[in-house]
Amino acid sequence: MAAIQALVCMSNLYKYMKQNSRPLRLTISTVDGAIAIIVNPIYEKLKIVPDHLLVFLDDKV
Length: 61
What we know:
By secondary structure, the protein is mainly α. It has three helices and no strands. The longest helix is centred in the middle third of the chain and has 22 residues.
């Protein structure tokens, strides 16, 4: 739960900083888009892993 709370806090802080950084907004958007292009395919492959793990453990029990 602490990790989730920390992630939510960091996400909110990032959104706040992104909204209030007027001169750097274009640079932040460019970097944000580049990171999304790299991370999204990895996330799509890994997001089903917990489901498979839960099904495997359910079958074992």
